[in-house]
Amino acid sequence: MSKKEQEITFEEAIERLEVIVSQLENGDVPLEKAIDLFQEGMKMSQLCGAKLEQVEKKIEVLIESESGFIKKTFAPANEDRGE
């Protein structure tokens, strides 16, 4: 991931991805432009995935225990249930 891509916020990447998808769905772009848009869209998708992964690693859930609150690292619901 380049430094420029790291500076893009998750929201900006999602917005750009939505624009790209819209342009590709319209089907009125030349083939070369469509390929460039597709490649950029894949980068934005990977960027969003990486940013979500970073956030998941930072999320902690407070669980009330007998002696107060303890911190537990976030685990997605399907992993938490062993699925």
UniProtKB/TrEMBL annotation:
EC number per UniProt: 3.1.11.6
Coiled coil: none
Location (main, coarse): cytoplasm
MF annotations from Gene Ontology: exodeoxyribonuclease VII activity
Catalytic activity: Exonucleolytic cleavage in either 5'- to 3'- or 3'- to 5'-direction to yield nucleoside 5'-phosphates
Domain of life: Bacteria
Database matches in InterPro entries: Exonuc_VII_S, Exonuc_VII_ssu_sf
Enzyme class per UniProt: hydrolase
Keywords from the UniProt entry: Cytoplasm, Exonuclease, Hydrolase, Nuclease
Compartmental location: Cytoplasm
Pfam family, one: Exonuc_VII_S
HAMAP family: Exonuc_7_S (MF_00337)
Family membership noted in the UniProt record: Belongs to the XseB family.
Function (record text): Bidirectionally degrades single-stranded DNA into large acid-insoluble oligonucleotides, which are then degraded further into small acid-soluble oligonucleotides.
PANTHER family reported for this sequence: EXODEOXYRIBONUCLEASE 7 SMALL SUBUNIT
Subunit structure: Heterooligomer composed of large and small subunits.
Protein's recorded name: Exodeoxyribonuclease 7 small subunit
Taxonomy of the source species: Bacteria, Bacillati, Bacillota, Bacilli, Bacillales
